[in-house]
Amino acid sequence: MPIVGVTLRGLLGRRRTLLMLLLVALPVLIGLLIRLSDSRIGVDRVLDTMLVQTVLPLVALVLGTAALGSELEDGTAVYLMIKPVPRWRIVGAKMLVSAGLTVVLVVPSTVLAGLLAGGVGPASLGTTFGYAVAVAAGGSAYACAFVGLSAFTSRALVLGLGYTMIWEGVLAGLLEGTRFLSVRQATLGIARGLSGQPVREGTLELGLAVAIVAIAVGAAFALGSIRLTRFEIRSAD
Amino acid sequence: MSGQPVQPVRLPRLEPPLPGPPASSDAVLAVDHVARWFGNVVAVNDISFGLGPGVTGLLGPNGAGKSTLLHLLAGLLQPSAGNVWVAGQRAWGNPQVYRRIGLVPEREGVHDYLTGHEFVLLNARLQALPDVEAAVGRALATVDLVTDSRRQIGTYSKGMRQRIKLAGALVHDPPILLLDEPFNGMDPRQRLHMMDLLRAMAAAGRTILFSSHILEEVERLADSVLVIYAGRLAAWGDFRSIRRLMTDRPHTFTLRSSDDRRLAAALLAEPSVFGAELTDGLLSVRTSDFGAFTRAVPRIAKTETISLFEVRPSDDSLESVFSYLVRR
Amino acid sequence: MSVSPGAPADRSTTAQVRASGPGGSIYDLGYQGYEGPRLGREAAIRALFWHTVRSCYGIGRGGRAKIVPFVLAGLAVLPAVVGVGIAAIAAQSGQVGDVLGSNSPIRYATYHGLVSTLVMLFCAAQAPELLGRDQRFGVLPVYFSRALARIDYAVAKVLGLAASLLAMVIAPYAVLFVGRVLVAPDPVEGLAEELPSLFPLIAQALLTSGLLAAIAMAIAAFTPRRAYATVGIIAAFLIPSIVVALVVGMLSGSIADWIVLMSPVDVLDGTNATLFRASADSQAVSASNFNGLVFVATALVGIAVAVAVTIRRYLRIAA
């Protein structure tokens, strides 16, 4: 798929790749620190705060908004649009690339951090495994949502940040019902559900969490494709 | 200009042909009372025309609506009113129409990190061409960029960027080509080369529409011209006819001499002069035959022994030419 | 352009010939240089400062630019307004409720925690616009060829963002202050009761807006691309605070304490706790053995360093 290729080339510019690698290296460093200092911080806590709350949304944000957004912003999207290619194919390709890259970057970081911080005991392994899968699912949901968002607005990055920091960070803690609209909660639900740990109060149930991720991806794909069929070139003469 | 009544301006004897229903007309590109506004600004104001094979120039000053019109034709803008037909299909919201169109946009830069070859290859693949490499090779050869095609576009000069955009637009051999200010940034040799190219393609049956604000370019290349001003179609037709018509319009000259008043009186006796006015120490003369006038002035000055300090046409600009066209 | 039929030829240039020869003419179009008074460097700095403040809030730039800043500022002041509203209604019905009392989440001491995320987002959204745009479109030479020195540009821009943040941070404090005074059974007595809080809340507001603005601008100064700057700013605020939270239990002794000082979020939490003599949100801060003034000093040092970095960047940037 040629669009996959050109999007991949566009996303893996030197600066962006460096920034992403730095971001995903941090949890591993923390894991290393924990291993070296031989302390008793729970794996769950590390992976939750360091990855799910911070690194995962940031990586997905950068890749998701850049996949489509940077081309829309600098005008090079025109060359993709004036082709007899169905719009859903364009959106789909971009979602595939950004979600794929997010997973490729964040899952190894999760696994390494989990192994370093938690060791290889069965409980920790279970948690690490749970988080690895959850991060793949949640990261895909985030990335696809941000690709879809960037079809609608050029400020997708800031809006996405607002979503993760305010909506998911602050409000979801206060208002019970909003847990269903939080990719973060879905990710945590999958992680804890798969880790074999007893389910904690307030966590989303596994099946529900998976459904939320699937709906997020599907909705982003549908809405983004529809929006792109009404693509108009930016301002006139 | 947006407050003016929406009337297409037509020259006598050169009415633009209104497109019939697309199936029966042989117009390849047709717009039917199309308009496009952005908030309060009307960029394209009730334009209708039909085009067939050959090269047509879209001429107008900056801000006239040329790019907007081209974007409407390329399905990149939705018409606020009216319809745009390309090869019998609607242009907007119809990706399949891009099999028949090649567009060379003016402002939009190409991906800097791709090589020329890769960019044309991308275009070819997205067009689902059967033999991609051959098509790419042909397109690159046509624009004379084969040797530079392995370099990144970020290293290209402006003229080379224009040419690689053209290669991308040509790779699928489209019957319709839309070019937005294609000669911007080209040196004279490249411009001649591209003109020859476009002429040859038009002779082979393609429909080519290109925009420009430079009279000479349009004159040299286009078989017929669409003159657009402030979003409205000011004139249409074979360029020579319009030019001839424009020289029938009165010309205004500004003169300064040692004795303006006597000069004015003497000039008014000439049959080619139909108005003279003294204002602010300058003499302004209106004439309907500028050839005869330019012969008369030195003759009269010599006869009357008046020294001429300054004789200049004061309505020579493209803008004043258009103002004549739109005043009607 | 309206040209009526029969109008005389264009007379907008009352052209005098200044020089003329066989090959051409030069016309004197009546252009005059400006000989009037010129406002100097301070006026330029002031103008840029106010321009920056207006840009932060999207004033003079159409509706879309106002959405993000006003929504964030609105959300910041919302809890205060709601709290005061409820307290007022409660006072009406006779119960001098405890909405704003010492157990409420809506107090001076706790407000910083409520609002700091919003302030960080504001920085991350606006700082790249303020600095990145000028770099991206190459207008720095236009700025530097005026009375404005490079250092003035940097300082005016940082002060502009800091002032915008200050407005956003002080508004809820002001609402709380006035609300509490008015809700009190005796306003004069209420005022006397609130006055001691005046200094801490102004100080905290100044430190918060100063530190976050300075750091955000220092990061935004280094890249014209909006996305990198935004993510960089958020990462600079968020990641240290998460690392601190995780690490503080592990390393014992003074190393752990010093690490806390590397996180702007925790430092401001510390100053908040010090100024309001309250407990800190962050565990790390509570666990540290510092005298509260260390946090204040760190904040001030942080501001100075960040501003210095920004100034240095603009002294060296190519323009």
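qc> Chain A has a mean pLDDT of 90.
qc> done
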